[in-house]
Write a structure and sequence with these properties.
With about 550 residues, the chain is α/β, with parallel strands linked by helices. About 30% of the residues lie in helices and about 15% in strands. β10, α5 and β11 form a beta-alpha-beta unit. It binds 3-acetylpyridine adenine dinucleotide.
Length: about 550
């Protein structure tokens, strides 16, 4: 296909590369292909850049990966940008994206409010991509940068539509609906994942005398202390001296952060060492408590039970009511420690000491139905609410891709291909879908990796692949079925090695969505081995792919 200059309302209709999604992953792709001289354009369903931070602007929304790893490693950007906090909130993250756009001038090559609904591989080796507002674009390559949370999940609560109060999912939050709107209101929050925890922590203290918060909890979140730090510009400028080292270090750690696993296993440590190690991690806070814990935390039941007990006792000491202690930090762990994504908190548990906050355990007393005024629980009580927050998560990792009707060489959709389980090559391509790549998606390091690190590392592999094709006069690349089978074994092996992780149902393995195949949605073996494998396949002339 030779590209021509055909436009509708400034959107070019014939391209070398079409990127979908204007978050960290997609913007990185757009910027780099432009620099390399490709005819590239980006489609975004929202009306601005920012990806996850465009959609998730609920009160308290805040990243749980620290800067400077939670930003681009491009020197032109980090040299000029300063953060005010180590874990920035959504407003500051959006300001960062505005800054990125000012520096790189990305928006001129983005069409907003363009939701891609269909993509079809056409003979002549190109993709024909259609949007809900009837744009039709032809492109040699298609790069999906949809993030892991592009498809929100709302459980099928009976009569939800009949509810007449205010009701929002955390990932479709109206920016104008600020914390102040919760004052003196009766609010329900359903779900206690990272989104629920953040919103509960934020609105709890501002409920006022007439306000009340009811939390509907199914599984307690093993929340970890965030230990937020404020930054000054001077201190940050000083810290920037080692940013280049930090950015290189990301490649050597499990999750693309600067910290890696602790060098020791639980059984080789003395009881005193263990206590001191856990106390040290607790004092530092953050997800490091999991990622830098004893290497066998997710394999060794004794280690896992002990770390859970340590966590439980810390948390219980902050909750006054003994019933709530048992609900929020049960004596017996509902699932292994580190088997679900923990949320970071600062004052989450103190909120439950407020007289105007209550918790309903939906295992004991499920939501029976909605009414125009609120929620009826199975015990027959009607709970009236002005606001209902659905913090019920996502059909994660695959959902964003399979909700688009993507049809490959044999006319079969990607949804059909993955109906009984995911098959990809290297977590970036799929057999039957030539010239299509995905970043931060199925079977990539995704759930276990810092987003910007993954966007850059997978992103660079894809960019080098497209460049290789250009310099070798190749126009088509497709993963083989054999390579997919081999890669799936690799993904399953890595998951088996973390055997305790299998014992929880979560967005990590699809267990949070009724009917979804339960399997590892991400590669759990860590970035270094993932990158090594990708690099080796590339060095062998893209082994596992057919190029022509
Ligand atoms: O989604 P979740 P999330 N009845 O799937 C509950 C990232 N993130 O949006 O645990 C009652 O974690 C469900 O219960 P259970 C972060 O990686 C990051 O909170 O399945 N409850 C769970 O409590 C995070 O892990 C940041 O038993 C129901 C909740 O809904 C990921 O996004 C901020 C239910 C869903 O939790 C997803 O987080 C926010 C039902 N029928 C998000 N169905 C930061 O960077 C589901 N639930 C800090």
């Amino acid at each position: 296909m030779s590209t021509r200059d055909v436009y509708i309302d400034k959107t070019p209709l014939e391209l070398d590369i079409l990127v979908i999604g204007a978050g960290f992953g997609g913007l990185y792709q757009l910027h780099n292909y432009r620099k390399l001289g490709y005819k590239v354009h980006l489609l975004e369903s929202g009306s601005d850049i920012g990806g996850i931070w465009y959609w998730n602007c609920y009160p308290g929304a805040r990243v749980d990966s620290p800067v400077p790893v939670y930003e681009y490693s491009m020197e032109d950007l980090w040299k000029e940008w300063n953060w005010t906090e180590q874990f920035p909130g959504w407003e500051e993250l959006r300001a960062y994206f505005r800054f990125v756009d000012e520096k790189l001038g990305l928006k001129k090559d983005i069409t907003f409010n363009a939701r891609v609904v269909r993509a079809e591989w056409s003979e002549g080796d190109h993709w024909t991509v259609s949007t809900a507002n009837e744009l039709v674009i032809h492109s040699r390559f298609l790069v999906l940068a949809l993030g892991f949370a592009a498809k929100r999940y709302t459980p099928p609560f009976p009569n939800l539509d009949s509810y007449q109060g205010i009701c929002h999912h955390t990932s479709a939050w109206p920016e104008t609906f600020t914390p102040a709107h919760f004052a003196e209101k009766r609010t329900a929050v359903i779900g206690t994942g990272a989104s629920g925890v953040q919103i509960i922590q934020e609105v709890g203290p501002i409920l006022g005398e007439e306000g009340h918060l009811t939390v509907f909890q199914r599984t307690p979140n093993y929340c970890l202390p965030m230990r937020q730090k404020k930054f000054t510009v001077d201190a940050q400028n000083e810290a920037k001296k080692i940013y280049p080292t930090i950015y290189k270090r990301r490649y050597q750690t499990y999750g693309g952060f600067i910290y890696g696993a602790y060098h020791k296993g639980w059984s080789s440590a003395t009881p005193e060492e263990r206590i001191l190690r856990l106390e040290e991690l607790w004092a530092k806070g953050s997800l490091e408590i999991i990622t830098s814990n004893y290497v066998d935390l997710r394999r060794n039941q004794e280690a896992n039970d002990a770390v859970y007990a340590f966590w439980r006792d810390k948390v219980r000491s902050r909750i006054r009511d003994t019933r709530l202690q048992e609900k929020l930090a049960p004596t017996v762990p509902p699932h292994p420690f580190g088997a679900k994504r923990a949320a970071l908190e600062e004052t989450y548990y103190e909120v439950y000491n407020q007289p105007n906050v209550s918790l309903i355990d939906v295992n004991e007393n499920p939501i029976a139905r909605f009414t125009p005024q609120g929620i009826v629980t199975q015990d027959g009580n009607e709970h009236k609410f002005d606001i209902v927050v659905l913090a019920t998560g996502f059909d994660s990792v695959t959902g964003g891709i399979t909700q688009i009707d993507i049809r490959g060489t044999d006319g079969r959709s990607i949804k059909e291909k993955w109906k009984n389980g995911i098959f990809t090559n290297l977590g970036m391509t799929a057999a039957g879908f030539p010239n299509m790549f995905f970043v931060y998606g199925p079977q990539g390091p995704t759930a276990f990796c810092n987003g910007p690190s993954c966007s850059e590392m997978q992103g660079d592999w894809i960019i080098r692949c497209i460049q290789y094709m250009k310099t070798h006069d190749l126009t088509r690349i497709e993963a083989t079925h054999e390579a997919e089978i081999e890669y799936k074994e690799y993904v399953l092996e890595a998951y088996e090695a973390m055997r305790l992780m299998k014992e929880a149902k979560s967005w990590w393995n699809g267990g949070n969505i009724p009917g979804k195949v339960v399997e590892p949605l991400s590669f759990a073996g860590g970035l270094p081995s993932y990158l090594k494998r990708c690099w080796e396949k590339e060095q062998r002339g893209y082994e596992g792919f057919i190029l022509s």
